[in-house]
Specification:
Layout: H1 2-23, E1 28-34, E2 37-47, H2 51-63, E3 68-71, E4 75-80, E5 90-97, E6 104-113, E7 116-117, H3 124-215, H4 219-259
Antiparallel strand pairs: 1-2, 2-6, 3-4, 4-5, 5-6, 6-7
């Protein structure tokens, strides 16, 4: 079921990418200044990318249909074969224009056919051919950019889901630790109360034995007193240790609750 859901989601997103790329793509007649001067161009806008990425993509596209593609003064394709524009080879100039701090790139393409640039007053067939070719490539690139963005978002979502799963496990471990620590605090607290009660009782017995030894000291009662004093000291040490354990447990719970 999960695989089917993932496949369906992938298909839906792919359809959305295709629809979005088509809907947001418009090729317009414009002009741009290349090294040879101001030329009529066809332009299209790409969002959330950079000029270098767009130029390199079109450079690769032009390599497969051109005799040569160079990037000296301008990105230029020579001997380009576009039958929908001309039966002869043509020359294409490419430039991505991106204002500083802008996330949008306006790509300009100038098509030179028979030493003339294709513009608004050119033959309709040539004008439509240039426009359609640019439109089709622009849609292709936008799909690729959209897919990369989706892949990056999916990867980030997976990372965040994994991180959340890890945090949930940590929370569960912390919660379990709190419960165990609380049980130990309760147990140590109960044992400390019993120990403190024994200390009170022992104190009375020690005082009585001290009086006995003071009145009539013998080897036996003196030894008994010494043993009782040792036992009394053990009880005091045990009470302090239990009290320290209780306080340490409370501090640990506070830290775990803060972590949660």
């Amino acid at each position: 079921m999960e695989k089917r859901s993932s496949l369906l989601t992938s298909v839906i997103f792919s359809s959305m990418l295709a629809a979005s790329a088509t809907a947001q793509t418009e090729v317009r007649p414009s002009s741009f200044t290349f090294s040879a001067g101001v030329c009529p161009t066809f332009s299209v806008v790409f969002n959330n990318t950079d000029a270098k990425t767009v130029e390199n993509w079109f450079k690769d596209e032009l390599k497969s249909i051109s005799a040569n593609v160079s990037n000296k003064k301008d990105l230029m394709a020579v001997g380009t074969r576009l039958p929908e524009v001309s039966s002869d080879t043509i020359r294409i100039y490419v430039k991505g224009d991106q204002p500083k701090k802008s996330k949008d790139v306006t790509l300009h393409l100038a098509f030179r056919v028979d030493n003339k640039y294709v513009g608004p007053d050119s033959d309709q067939r040539q004008s439509d051919g240039c426009k359609n070719w640019l439109y089709q490539r622009a849609v292709m690139l936008k799909k690729e950019l959209g897919q990369k963005e989706l892949d990056a978002a999916t990867k980030e979502q997976k990372r965040m889901e994994d991180e959340l799963a890890g945090l949930i496990k940590e929370k569960d471990r912390a919660q379990n630790s709190i419960e165990k620590t609380q049980d130990r605090i309760t147990s140590d607290g109960t044992e400390k109360l019993e120990t403190d009660g024994s200390i009170t009782t022992m104190a009375t017995e020690v005082d009585s034995k001290k009086q006995e030894v003071a009145r009539s000291p013998t080897e036996a009662n003196t030894k008994e007193l010494q043993n009782m004093l040792k036992e009394q000291e053990k009880l005091r040490h045990k009470s302090e240790k239990l009290g320290s354990s209780v306080e340490s447990g409370k501090k640990k719970i506070e830290d775990l609750q803060f972590t949660i």
